Batch of 2 targets.
Target 1
Amino acid sequence: MSVIELTNVSKSYPDGDALQTVADNIDLTIDYGEFIGICGPSGSGKSTMLKLMNGLVTPDTGSVQVLGETPAAINGFDKWRIKKVGFVFQHHFLLPELNGLDNVLFMAQIAGWKRKWVRERAKEIFAYLGAERAAKRMPEQMSGGERQRVAVARALINDPPILLADEPTASLDRNRAEDLFSLYAKLSAEHNKTVVMATHDDRFVDRFSRAYTIDRGVLTEKEPLPAARQL
Ligand SMILES: Nc1ncnc2c1ncn2[C@@H]1O[C@H](COP(=O)(O)OP(=O)(O)OP(=O)(O)O)[C@@H](O)[C@H]1O
Ligand SMILES: [Mg+2]
């Protein structure tokens, strides 16, 4: 069984009197531990692709299977989603009234975990992400990189097999973007997470196990660059 399977998926949105196609007959199969990049310019449909993968958007035609199930058809879909698919939003969406740790614990509570046990797990995740300071800070006191790490911690707290990250490096400087990208690569390589990342940062393309471009709804696999020539 593959982790994510899109078969003949199409999706359009109304655009004035016309329809804008953001997914045009897309076929895509993703397995455990893969690190997939979805690249493309603004408005090309990257976020929509990720939302199709966790059931936040339903396709007009075609089928989306996640861990062998159709998200929209699952009883208790919301709980299923936060346990199976960690999502790091483009604009992080941390709750402004809660510090970093409580933002993460909140997600675990929704999933039904006991607070005491999960507190320890949250602390371990903050340490793993190198974000201990952010645990005690309110979102407005965090740097952009810290907010992104807290958003990753929140996505990881329920130990989902799938992580979807929507342009997680977009607001970071070069070094912080590199650190955060490496973190996702590590989660996929060492923890067998299936990671799908939307990005318009071309620097990272060769570091995905597979990278795709989306343009006018058409998904095309990027050719890996030829290996550096030996001199
Ligand atoms: N719920 C919606 N209703 C109508 N149109 C939408 C909706 N969601 C997305 N769109 C449109 O679909 C297109 C693709 O949007 P999407 O957010 O997937 O692009 P994106 O590649 O993630 O862009 P960006 O790089 O700016 O985040 C855009 O033109 C957007 O306006
Ligand atoms: Mg987007």
Note: The chain has a mean pLDDT of 91.
Target 2
Amino acid sequence: MKKIRPVNSLLIWPTLPPQVYFKAKSNWRPFPLDQDNCRIYSKARQAIWQAFTSLNLGPDAVILMPAYHHGSEVEALLKAGLKIRYYEVNELLEPDPAGLEALLDANVCALYLIHYLGFPQDALFWRQWCDARQLLLVEDAAQAFLATQQGQPVGSHGHMAFFCLYKTYGLPDGGAVVSSVPPPFPSASRQSGLWRAFKRHINWVATRRKEVGLVHLLFKPVQTWWNRSLSELKKQHHKEFEVGNPSTPPSTMTSFLLPKLLDEGTAEDRRKNYRFLLGHLGEMVPPPFDSLPEGASPFAFPIEVSDAKSFLLRLRHRGVGGLLFWLNPHPSLPVADFPRSKALREGLLALPVHQELTMADLEQIVQAVQEARVGLTAKAAVAG
Ligand SMILES: Cc1ncc(COP(=O)(O)O)c(C=O)c1O
């Protein structure tokens, strides 16, 4: 059996440095936090449910949704009473106008556009396309908080847009919506968020202390197994998509930490890390992620691999927690009808790129990927 060495553990999620408590609050309020019609809930899926419920679209309303999606956004839309009609993305992960046109009928009320991995879609084009057909444009910027396009914030062209604050900063939770019909403020009782903030602190320590990194490395698969077994026991088969109470406000810790964490340099720090990884691993990165647009705020660094599960394991042994980017679609998706989305789910592996990474962390990621690649190529050669 292969010996696992102590190694710093690097995850996709931004960590929470302990010195955050000594930081002054920032006065900077990036979009959508500077908008009167912005509402913040615990999760973006709750914001989606709230925004669509406030629209009262009726029982026949259909939304055009990419087959390449997380799943929780689909669940929130279904729970809000919408019908989903899926479209395939093109090789640049954009909707195809001709493909969309074929899906239109009198019941279609909205186009759902996902800004994948913090890379802006051409929202201005899609807004004009929607306006010409009297459709709503919905921008899913869950992974694109702080991203801009031609100086305009991502999310500002849509009739509504959604953001995950905790994907950009080491917060326990926080999902925002900005909408032309603002939903009600969350009214359920507030959670403390202490446990999740503590875990983000531990993640920070694990990036700096090999011993903690090792425990992290060993503990994570056990935790995943435990959560999965528990869900199976409770017959909650798609727990990762559950909406929960849509009136849940962001936790106390999120409200306390967010103004301390907001920083005008965050998107550029992420871009700097992305450029470094692109410089070393660029040939593994598929379009459109192989060149970095000016205003992107990368959520993760994607590489394309053929044996993703083995690759992930090899990365983990080297302290890098990659993520198979949306392995499981929402159960309502007829998977076989959308081959490109299926291939993306099986082969697109996301690596950490967040602003808390140091140069040594980035070098560790590059080395881990190169070693995993060489190891798997050698294994394939032996098997062949
Ligand atoms: C594209 C997209 N939309 C919506 C969501 C839902 O976000 P949350 O987990 O905050 O509900 C996610 C979550 O990963 C996502 O990736």
Note: The chain has a mean pLDDT of 95.
